[in-house]
Amino acid sequence: MNDIYTARTAYLSLGSNLGERRENLRAAIRMLEDRASCIITVVSSLYETKPVGLVEQPDFLNAVIAVKTTLSPADLLERCMKTEETLGRQRTIRWGPRVIDIDILLYEDVSMETENLIIPHPRMAERAFVLIPLAEIAPDVQIGDGMTAFEAAGRISSDGVVRVQDESWSKI
Question: Which strand (E) or helix (H) includes residue 13?
Fold first, then answer.
């Protein structure tokens, strides 16, 4: 249920390291969008990245998207989780392999913490696989601590984060 009526900008990170990774990301983007309450406005390039945490797993493909949404943060989280579930996400191992992972990074200038959702994302500033694609599509967005995405991306090591050249991806 929508509890706000003005469209707000949110940034979501997407990652996949199981199955057809590129297709998993495309499917998630299609499922997240519905013209009434959530419109994808910008999609970053694809990045191939090394796993964080449990390293004995395949590399990830990652991207960040910007959406205009009338969904509340809680409803947007519900849509993200439903999309993950539909695509076969199983939450068995923290930081383990996954068909799809979708995180809300930012939601306008909202700062909130509930049992299920923290905005801005609490580990965003530590993750090159999030900051680099976010800085690509929204370099001036404030991520917290008075830093822009561009500034934060410049302060973190980009080792293990490789931009994937893919003409078909840019046509999403």
Answer: strand 8-16
